[in-house]
Each structure stands twice: as structure tokens, then as C-alpha cells.
Amino acid sequence: MDVQDANTFKLGLLNAREALNLFENRTKKKVDREFKPVTDRLLRKCGGLPLAIATTATALRGKDLSMWCHFAETSEKLISSQVSSEYRETYSILETSYKLIDIEEKMIFLFLACLSPLDSAITVDELMRYGIGFDLFQSANDLSEAMEQAATWANELISSSLLLKGDFDGEVKIHDLVRASFISFIDKDKDRKTLVERIPRWMRKEAFEKFTAISLMSGHDFSRLSGVKAPMLEILLLKGDVSLTTLASDFFKGMKNLKVLSLSNMNFNMGLPESMGELKRLQTLHLHHCKLKDVKLIGKLVDLLVLSLRESSLEELAVEIGELCNLRLLDIGSCKGMKRIQANILSRLSNLEGLYMFNGFDDWSSTNIEVNDGEGSNQASGSELDTLSHLDVLEMEVSKAKQLLTVNNGHMIEQLVKFKIRVRSSHESPEELPVFRCVLELIDIDASPNSGLRALLKKTECLVLRSCKRLTKNVVPELDED
User: Fold this and answer.
1) Rounded to whole angstroms, how far apart are CA atoms 109 and 113?
2) Model pTM?
3) Three-class SS of residue 93?
4) Could you give the CA distance from residue 260 to residue 270 in angstroms, rounded to a whole number?
5) What is the secondary structure of 410-436 as a DSSP string?
6) Helix or strand or coil: residue 329?
7) I need a surface site. Which of 78, 165, 266, 480 has the fewest CB within 10 A?
């Protein structure tokens, strides 16, 4: 769907009584004689569309009569020429409500949600990661505060009917009409140009020079982007076919101002495109569901704040990743083929606040090696995590308890505010864990808990024990005492 052609929507319309009931319910006000003329005027413009009615009513909740009249007058001046006459009134209503979004960062947050694939949900966490690339969380002190701010914005936008709740916790969706109208609004208001869904067949290469955002996540061909000049492009989201899609070496040559890059379902077994190493302004990089072999080129992107290789095939984390001294978040979760992380890579990520490794690498060294000491097993150990003084979000899995709990003084455990940790001594197939802020799962662990495990238990909100009879006898009484 190209934004300019987004004119067709399936709509269920309300009759006059239903429309008024919805309007009064959302404004939390019974429309009296004084407000009735402007209410009728607004509802006529909404045309019985529940989305437009709910958005308008939420925007006007608690406002006085003059604000209602101003809203009606403003919406009448915003008739868009880019949509069919059938939906121009609805666009004007929605665009007026967008002007009432009081925080610039929240407006960009909503715009990022508009770049998700049609008919798909997107997690608030992923929106936050894109937002980090756009510096949306400058008032946050740490990653957990950024997560809370993103969740707050998402809830406020849901309350305003601009976002919809997804099918699962932490997910949101966006109505097609809101997506199209908001992209149209923000492009016009912020002097931007956005392309979503597909590249029009007649589009000339020169047209890409004006785009600031491109999202092609529905499987349509994007080979024409290779080597184009797109000096204004700030965010690029692409989804391919993992068995077929590769990118030319010079693919990103004309995109040197990229801040956010997300590539999924691509084959990089022959290496990442050389031009990716020239993206010096890149702050968020996602390589999801990709075939990866050599990722050392990423080490050149020293301004990266977020790196996610989630669910990609990768056997070893390149030593060069340790050069990313500004990295705040590293996600290598569900990289099930990862067998090796060399010692002293993680410990060099001195600004790391979020480390996501769940359902992937679990072969931690049980040797408590000194940081920067090349001796020992040469495999990452739990002691490295204890050197990360800013780490407060951790998701990880270990195959033996002693591999995790080799920390020197438990400082890492004390500073965690959110974690999901699985410790197991067998290859029993684990089940999906419940959603809590601090979750600990122990599988087939019979040893008595050491100091590190005791510290984790004290911070755990949800404890899952499987085949841990001896440990249960020792742990449960202690927890009851605490």
C-alpha cells in the first residue's frame, strides 16, 4: 500500500443514536442543549465511523465549548486532496485530533507504529528500540525508564483510539485509516516523505532522494533500492525471503544518514554488505530471522545504541562487537545455533543496560576468569556480567547453575530491575514462561542454593520449579521466612 493510494477501507458505520451514545461515552459527558449544535456538527463530519467518533470524543474530553467549536472549525479546513471524497471528512477529523498530541516524541512514536506491516501487531518493546534510534527518550535515566515511557505512550494512544491493543500482552496494532491519515498528516506537517508497503512501478530513482522513511515489510520486491541516493532517509525497514534475499555490497551507499535499520528474513551467509559499515549515524540495527555468518563489520558502527540479532542463525558472536562502547541494548535471543561467545566481549560493553540472550546461547564457562585475562576456557563467563555496572535488564539461559553464579560479589544481581532467567541441568523441553517483571525458572536443579541463587530468589516475582524436589525442600521454607 503506497500512502498516496490508501483510499479503500472496510468500515462498519453507526446510526445517529449509536454515534451519539459512543460520543457521550468517550467524552464522559451528557450532551446538553448548549453543546448539541457543535456535537451534531462533529458527528456529521465523523459520518458514523466509530474510529473517528471515538478519536474526536477522546480528544475533547474535559474541554470547554470553545475548544469543541475550534476543533470543528479546524477539521473543516483540513480536507485532504490525497484521498477520495468519501473519506476526506474522516481524514480531517483524524488530522485535527493529531494536532492535539501534546508531546513531539509521542507523535514520532505513533509514526513509528505506522511503519509496521499491514494487519500485523508490533511490540511496544520494538517501538521503543526504534525510538531509541530517534533519541525519543532523552529524559530517561536508564533502559527500564525508557521501557516505562514507551508503555505509557502506548497506553495513552490506545486510550485515544489511535492505537489498538494487540492479541498478546505488550503488542499494539493500528487501524489502516489511522495509519494512512497519520502518515499523510505528519509528512505534510513535518515536511517529510514516507513510503510504505511497496514501491510504485513507475517511480523514478530520483524520487528516493526526498524520502525520510521507507518500510517495505510485506514481501514486495525492494531490489530497486540498491545503490539509490537517499540522503534524507532516517529509517529503513525491509523484510525479504530468508532463502533468496541478499543485498548488494553497495546497497546502503547512498543512505548515510540512516538512524534506524531493520532487516529481516535475509541471507547474509556471504557476509554483510560492505556499505553497511559506512552508516556512521546508525543508532538502532535489527537483523532478525537472518542467516548470518560473519558480523564483524558491525564493530565499525561505534554509535550504535541498539543491536538485535534475534532469531538469526549465527554460531559465534564476533570479537569486534566488543568495540561498540556506546551500546545500550544487545539482543541475541533465540539465536539457537550460537555456540560460542569469546571471553571479554561482553565485559567491554561498558554502557550496556539490557542484555537479551534467552532461548539461545547457554554454554557459559564455569571458570571465574579475570576480565581482560586471556587465560581460562576463553568462553564468556558469568563473572563478566558483574562488571557491567549499568546492566538492569537481563534475559538469559544457562545449562548449569554454577555457570551463571560465578559472579564475584552479586552486584549484577542486586542492580537488576527486570529479568527472565532459566537455569537447567537437563535438556528437558521447557514450556513458555508467564509474563512477570522478574521471572526465574529452575529445571532439574537438585543442589542446594548458593549465595548467587539466593540473591536471585529474593528478587523473583515468579518462580517456576521443574524436577527440583531437593531444591524445593530447601528453597520454599526460606522464601516463606523472607
Assistant:
1) 7
2) 0.85
3) helix
4) 23
5) SHHHHH-SEEEEEEESS-PPPPPPP--
6) strand
7) 480
Angle of helix 104-114 relative to helix 176-189, nearest 10 degrees, comes to: 130
Where is 437: in which H helix or E strand? none
331 φ, ψ (degrees, to nearest 5):
-120, 110
| The C-alpha cell that represents 264 in the structure block | 529481516
Between helices 176-189 and 50-60, what is the axis angle to 10°?
Answer: 50
Give CA–CA dist 460/325, Å, rounded: 30
Helices 451-459, 469-481: axis angle to 10 degrees equals: 60
Distance CA 307, CA 56 (A): 39
Residue 271 grid coordinates: 557476509
In angstroms, the CA 218 to CA 166 distance is 19
Whole-angstrom Cα distance, residue 152 to residue 158?
10
Torsion of Cα atoms, 222 then 224 then 229 then 233, to 10°:
-10
Q: Is 167 exposed, middle or buried (0-12, 13-18, 19+ CB in 10 A)?
A: exposed
With DSSP H G I counted as helix, E B as strand and the rest as coil, what are the percentages for the chain, rounded to 5? 35, 15, 50
Among 299, 357, 120, 141, smallest CA distance to 218 is for: 120
Nearest to residue 51, comparing CAs of 26, 78, 69, 72?
A: 26
Residue 151 CA to residue 106 CA, distance in Å, equals 11
**Could you tell me where the DSSP H helices lie in 163-242?**
176-189
With beta carbons less than 8 A apart as the criterion, state whether 194 and 183 touch. Answer: yes
Distance CA 371, CA 352 (A): 16
**Nearest residue to 333 (alpha-carbon basis) of 479, 203, 416, 433:** 433
Mean pLDDT in each 10-residue stretch from start to end of the chain (482 residues)?
41 80 92 93 82 85 90 63 54 80 94 90 97 97 96 92 89 85 82 88 92 91 92 96 85 97 95 96 97 96 98 95 98 93 95 95 73 60 88 88 53 88 76 87 74 81 83 59 56
CA angle 10, 11, 13 (to 5 degrees): 160
